[in-house]
Specification:
With 272 residues, this protein is mainly alpha-helical. It contains nine helices and no strands. It is elongated.
C-alpha cells in the first residue's frame, strides 16, 4: 500500500445549532442506512416491546420511573432570584454552546483530514499485448500488493469512533452539571439524563461498532462494480467510497451530539 497525496477535503456538514428539535427517526445516520443495500429489514411492530427490553431492563425501568416521579411540583422550591442571575445563566449557556461548537469542529476536522489522507492502492498498470502474462493464458498472476483493502478504512473509522466517545461523553457530563447548577428546576432532567447515559451507552456503543461491517459490504460492492467495468474505464470508486465513509462518520457525530444538544435546548433563555 502506498500513501497517495492528500486529496482536497470534502465539504463538511454545517455545524449543528445548539437548539434542535430533530426527530430521532429523521437523523442523518438512519437516513443513510435506510438508503443503502446493507440495511437489515425492518422488524415487525409487534416486536417493539421485545426490542425495547434489549435497551432497558426491569431494574433500569424502575430507576427511570423513580427519577421521573421525583420531579418537583411547579414552584415547589420557588425562591427569589438575584437580579444578576438571569445574566449569569445566559452567560453560562453561551459559554457551553461555544465549548460544544469547538469540540464538534475539532472532531469534524479530524474526520475530514483522516479521510483525505487514507492510504490508497495505486491502479494496476495496463498490460499490453507484448507482455508475457498477456501472451500466456495459462500463466497465473500472483495477487497484487496494490489490491485495495478495507483495512485502512476500518482502522480510520474505529479511531474516529473512539475519539468521538472520548470527547463527547465528558462534554455531555459537563453540560449536565452546569445545567443543574444554573437552573434548580432542571436538576431532575440532569439526573434523568445521567441515568439514561448509564443505561443506554453500552448498547449504543455496541450497535455503532457494527457500522464498519456495513460499510465493508459497500466497499466490496463498489470494488466489484469497478472490477466489472469496461476495460480502460476510469473509476474513482475509492475516492467516492472515502467520501461516503466521511458522510457516515459526520452523521454518527451528529447522532452522538444529540443528548448534549438536547440539554442545551432545555436551558432556559433566562433564569425564571
Amino acid at each position: 500500500m502506498t500513501r497517495a497525496r492528500p486529496r482536497p477535503l470534502a465539504a463538511a456538514a454545517p455545524p449543528l445549532q445548539p437548539a434542535t428539535h430533530a426527530h430521532f427517526h429523521s437523523t442523518r445516520l438512519l437516513q443513510l442506512l435506510a438508503a443503502g443495500p446493507a440495511m437489515p429489514a425492518p422488524q415487525p411492530q409487534a416486536a417493539f416491546a421485545e426490542h425495547l427490553g434489549q435497551w432497558v431492563d426491569v431494574a433500569s425501568a424502575f430507576t427511570l420511573r423513580a427519577l421521573h416521579n421525583s420531579r418537583p411540583l411547579p414552584h415547589a422550591h420557588h425562591r427569589p432570584h438575584r437580579p444578576d442571575e438571569s445574566a449569569e445563566s445566559t452567560s453560562a449557556r453561551q459559554a457551553l454552546q461555544q465549548q460544544v461548537a469547538r469540540v464538534q469542529a475539532r472532531l469534524t476536522a479530524a474526520i475530514t483530514l483522516a479521510v483525505a489522507n487514507v492510504p490508497q492502492a495505486k491502479p494496476e498498470p495496463v498490460k499490453f499485448q507484448g507482455d508475457a502474462a498477456a501472451q500466456d493464458p495459462g500463466q497465473t498472476t500472483p495477487p497484487s500488493e496494490n489490491e485495495p483493502s478495507f483495512a485502512p478504512y476500518l482502522k480510520l473509522y474505529q479511531t474516529q469512533q473512539r475519539a468521538m466517545q472520548d470527547q463527547l461523553l465528558p462534554l455531555r457530563a459537563n453540560v449536565r452539571v452546569a445545567l443543574a447548577s444554573a437552573c434548580a428546576e432542571l436538576k431532575p432532567l440532569a439526573r434523568l439524563d445521567q441515568a439514561f447515559e448509564a443505561i443506554l451507552t453500552e448498547r449504543e456503543t455496541r450497535l455503532l461498532a457494527q457500522l464498519p461491517s456495513l460499510l465493508e459490504k459497500r466497499f466490496q460492492a463498489a470494488q466489484q462494480a469497478a472490477a466489472e467495468a469496461a476495460p480502460g474505464a476510469h473509476s474513482d470508486w475509492q475516492l467516492a467510497f472515502g467520501q461516503e465513509l466521511q458522510t457516515f462518520l459526520l452523521a454518527e457525530l451528529d447522532l452522538r451530539l444529540q443528548p448534549t444538544l438536547g440539554l442545551l435546548d432545555a436551558w432556559p433563555d433566562g433564569h425564571h
